[in-house]
Design goal:
This protein is an alpha/beta fold and 609 residues long. The chain is built from 20 helices and ten strands. Among the domains are: 348 residues, ABC transporter transmembrane region fold (Up-down Bundle), CATH 1.20.1560.10; 72 residues, Rossmann fold. Strand 4 and strand 5 form a beta hairpin. Helix 3 packs antiparallel against helix 4, helix 7 runs parallel beside helix 11 and helix 17 runs parallel beside helix 18. The two termini are 68 Å apart. It binds adenosine-5'-diphosphate (ADP).
Length: 609
């Protein structure tokens, strides 16, 4: 329940809507109660054989069911005497139409003001969860499946919508309805109403027991749905490989098996959920029958103090409680489902941020001296240590190359600098300031990334280059594209800089994609550059163009380059050889060759010198 309340806490912004919704609901309920309470006495007056008598003084009209009925009785009697019974009948009909019109008008108005409230909560939660996704550390998402997150943002929020509406009805509309009717009933016959009050909780208990398992089942359902979305997402992005390896049948089987589990769970949920309405109706009617039996017997013995018409009116009013009571139990069932979804959403909202900026974080305008890794140790989730006692100085303007076998910890090492992860122990400083003491935006502003896989978005060339940099001119974009050897192919695209590059840049070749990311890095103009095997996925022709662009990008910058092809880093100021998370060798190309160690071996394997 606390998770649902956490989601509903956004209601605070919709106080006016809540107030108006409540007000119009009360109006609607009062109108319907009055209209029903009026019918019996009027019919009694109308069909009585002797003429009714009119009291001398007209009663005062004030805001109570009693007074309203008394006032209408007076007016009605007057009509019977003055205008005749037929006119009185017309009067009843017209009154009923007017009262019901007003009741429904108020009901609509209540709903009208409810809409921005319920949709507003959904909008706010969606915004909150998306902001949280952006704020959460990268490590959070390596643990979670993408599809699961997507399901939480979409389907779980949809589940909550149903829950919210039901919750609001339960909180505001139905209790008022039930209490109003119970009030009228209590006024008409305390004895019968007491009887009902004893029987009703029993039915409530039965309905509640059946709804209990819904939350658990619903959570399981949403989890399976998350797995389905993950498979869809992975299939869409890996379609080429799936087709190339002929694993369509395997994927299909994987999908249909989870889909089938989901189907079974959904059946259970739906069946149980659908039970709420017939069950509560049946229970309601059973109670009506019990009241008929008990109350009818009393009326027949004339010991209830209620006329037969009065008894019928009582039963009609009581029958009006059945529908809100039914809504109550349906709402209860839906809320149980919604609770599972809100728990899933709140779990993301409450997830530990881990990488946080200090309250008094420092700002740096520019990088002026050196980056220092001082005794850095690191492990992912307290598993095996990936980096061990790394000591490394990178002076401004230097180009440092990281080489070593795959899995040595090269990517991990460079990920620590922009604080994608935090060191387990040791320190990383920029110009003597610990990166943990810096403002995150300041720190990341100083760093540019070009990775092996070009990260591009389904948008125009222009927006992919200007990514994150505000107020750039076309000329600046073109300059960056020219330096990145990208301008020529861009103007060849249909639409030029406004051309859409497709999902993850799928309309471009590998080299073109890479040159776009280089143009993006050139435009950002960072002081520190991290190149993570930027050319390893390319053919020789593209590599030449990209390499050339990279040289221009690296000019006058401090760069850390991860490279597989050692030919590209021979001129680096320092080459660091990393193996099993430790720095094994460091020095220039020449130094390391003469050392005759790991680097020398790697070089001879790649046939360069
Ligand atoms: P390299 O870039 O040198 O190939 P990485 O830095 O990618 O090496 O990986 C170093 C080690 O850390 C590997 O053993 C790898 O399995 C492990 N590793 C990388 N990323 C994660 C992660 N998100 N969670 C757990 N272990 C990881």
């Amino acid at each position: 329940m606390k998770h649902l309340l956490r989601v509903l806490s956004h209601s605070i912004h919709y106080k006016v809507n809540i107030g108006l919704n409540l007000l119009f609901n009360i109006f609607a309920i009062v109108f319907s109660a009055v209209s029903l309470a009026m019918v019996a006495p009027f019919l009694q007056l109308l069909f009585k054989s002797e003429m009714p008598e009119l009291s001398k003084q007209a009663p005062h009209l004030y805001f109570s069911v009693d007074s309203i009925i008394e006032y209408f009785e007076y007016t009605f009697t007057k009509i019977i005497i003055v205008e005749g019974r037929y006119s009185a009948l017309v009067f009843i009909c017209v009154t009923v139409i007017v009262v019901f019109f007003l009741k429904n008008l108020f009901r609509y108005l209540a709903m009208y003001f409810l809409a921005p409230w319920r949709n507003g909560i959904l909008r706010d939660v969606r915004n909150e969860i998306f902001a949280k996704i952006l704020a959460l550390p990268i490590s959070y998402f390596t643990e979670k499946r993408k599809g699961d997150i997507i399901t939480r943002v979409t389907s779980d929020i949809q589940e909550i919508e149903i829950s919210i509406v039901q919750f609001l009805e339960i909180i505001f509309r139905e209790p008022i309805t039930i209490l109003t009717y119970l009030g009228v009933m209590l006024y008409m016959s305390p004895q019968l109403t007491l009887f009902i009050l004893i029987v009703l909780p029993l039915t409530g208990y039965i309905i509640g027991t059946i709804g209990k398992t819904l939350k658990k089942q619903s959570k399981m359902g949403q989890e399976r749905l998350g797995e389905l979305v993950t498979i869809i997402e992975e299939t869409l992005s890996g379609l080429r490989i799936i087709k190339a390896f002929n694993v369509e049948a395997y994927r299909r089987h994987q999908f249909s098996s989870i889909n089938h589990t989901l189907f079974s769970i959904q059946n259970k949920i739906k069946r149980r959920q659908q039970l709420s309405s017939p069950l509560s109706e049946f229970m309601g009617i059973s109670v009506v029958a019990a009241v008929l039996w008990y109350g009818g017997g009393l009326v027949l013995n004339d010991s209830l103090g209620l006329s037969p018409e009065g008894f019928i009116t009582y039963i009609v009013i009581f029958s009006q409680i059945i529908s809100p009571a039914k809504a109550f139990s349906t709402a209860y069932y839906n809320i149980r489902k919604g609770m599972a979804s809100s728990e899933r959403i709140v779990n993301v909202l409450n997830a530990d941020l881990q990488i946080v900026e200090k309250d008094n974080a420092l700002t740096i305008d520019c990088f002026s001296s050196e980056i220092n890794f001082d005794g850095v140790n690191f492990s992912y989730n307290d598993q095996a240590q990936v980096l061990k006692g790394i000591n490394l100085k990178v002076k401004k303007g230097e180009c440092i190359a990281l080489v070593g076998p795959s899995g040595a910890g090269k990517t991990t090492l460079v990920d620590l600098l922009p604080r994608f992860y935090d060191v387990s122990s040791g320190n990383i400083t920029i110009d003597g300031i610990n990166v943990k003491d810096l403002k995150l935006t300041d720190l990341r502003d100083k760093i540019g990334f070009v990775s092996q896989q070009a990260i591009l978005f389904n948008d125009s060339v222009y927006n992919n280059i200007s990514f994150g940099v505000e107020g750039v001119s076309q000329a600046q974009i073109e300059r960056a594209a020219k330096l990145a050897n990208a301008h020529d192919f861009i103007i060849g695209l249909e639409g030029g800089y406004n051309a859409n590059i497709g999902d993850q840049g799928s309309k471009l070749s590998g080299g073109q994609k890479q040159r776009l990311t280089i143009a993006r890095a050139i435009l950002k103009n960072p002081a520190i550059l991290i190149l993570d095997e930027a050319t390893s996925a390319l053919d020789t022709e593209s590599e030449k163009l990209v390499q050339d662009a990279l040289i221009k990008l690296m000019k006058d910058r401090t760069s850390i380059v991860i490279a597989h092809r050692l030919s590209t880093i021979q001129h680096a100021d320092k080459i660091i050889v990393l193996k099993d998370g430790e720095i094994k060798e460091s020095g220039t190309h020449k130094d390391l060759l003469s050392l005759g160690g790991i680097y020398n071996n790697l070089v001879s394997l790649q046939n360069i010198n």
